[in-house]
Amino acid sequence: MVVSINDVARRAGVAVSTVSKVLNHYPNVSQATKDKVNKAVAELNYVPNTIASALSSKNNKRVALVVFINNQRQAIDEINMQYLFGAFNKAKELSLEVVTIFSSIIEGMDEEELIRYFNSLSISGIIIYGLTNTHEAFLDIIERQLFHIVVVDAPLYNQKTSSVMVDHTKGQYDVAMKCLENIICDRMLYIAGGKEGFVTQMRVKGIQRLQEEYGFELAIEYADFSEKKAYQIVLEKGKTYDAIVCASDLMAIGAVHALQELDIFHPVCGYDGITLLGYVGFAINTVKQDFYDVSSVAIEEMQNLLNGDTGKSRLLDYSLCTIDYKDVIM
After folding, report:
1. What is the pLDDT of residue 5?
2. CA atoms within 13 A on the CB side of 174
3. Neighbouring C-beta atoms of residue 286, cutoff 10 Å
4. Beta-bridge partners for 158
5. Which of 7, 144, 162, 261 makes an SS bond possible with 301, Cβ 3.0 to 4.6 Å?
6. Distance from first CA to last CA of the chain, Å, rounded?
7. Whose CA is closest to 324, among 287, 272, 282?
8. 161-166 and 313-316 as β-strands: parallel, antiparallel, unpaired?
9. From the centroid of its chain, how far is CA 128?
10. What's the pLDDT tens digit per position in 198-213?
11. Do 256 and 280 meet the contact criterion of CB atoms below 8 Å apart?
């Protein structure tokens, strides 16, 4: 039997218009009403006719680009912009339709609300940028394999999910080892990102591996990828360490400015290879990722999944470099 919106309204004891408002996330609907409608939807296994039609279409290839924004960053987010440019251009080439969804739009939605939201947009695949351990609803959706999904910078894959990223553990190891060239390091300060991030966890493993091999004393501080927090940490503690390794270029910029204020020199390295590093006037070794290419590959991998391929882990190349002002303006 086909379940209609009228059946949902009767089960929930509300008007049909109220059901529509809940399903389309209208404001000014009470939580009690939302709960009643969502419960009725779940009990009846209701799928709107327009959604069912879209999902049944073999030609449906609409992909959601879900971007989790880090509000701790003080600078314009070059990384996410490069991700989006790479996705848009590759999607156009492959005739995929993409819809950009920033985290503020879906903030607070639980798993079932997210599923209905993506279905309402006729989404057949999701590419996720910035996933962390705190995004439980998305982790459950990945585990249940409800959509074709590509995660960027998270080591998660299954039958319907692929992972695309560089080897962050090796990248962090390599750039930190370069930071130790020509110095004696007894104590290292490592400024990590956010504790819940998959990227942070992988990079911490890299610095811990280096510490095990070289035997220096290692202190790990978490600055949530914030330039300001890194600046404050180094201003307070920077004098007592021989080298400072940062898990992002923005945090490295904050660390350098703190050292300048303290009027001391320690080698500093970053991670990402963003353009802003060229304006610092200080040679900072970094891991350069091609975010545009990473996102292009994510779109390619999504196309593969939609065509029936099995999910996989794809590791891309990175390079070690310093970024000079001339590199920026050329």
Report:
1. 86
2. 15
3. 26
4. 161
5. 162
6. 65
7. 282
8. parallel
9. 6
10. 999 999 999 999 999 9
11. yes
